[in-house]
Amino acid sequence: MFAFITSFDELIVALFLSGSGAVTLPRRMRDDLRFEIDPTIAAVSALTIVLTALGLGGAHLTRRRGAR
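RESULT FIELD:
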């Protein structure tokens, strides 16, 4: 899960490693942002933020219950 989330930030590596035929998710997101207006990118980023907040909230609650 951690590797999947951090892979969103690796645009430069994805640009150098992917060939002309392979389209990785970070490359697709960059191309969509540059060439067309699509609400999918906003939905993916909002989903990432919500999942991160839920994960942090769940970890906080687990830690708090473990301290009791």
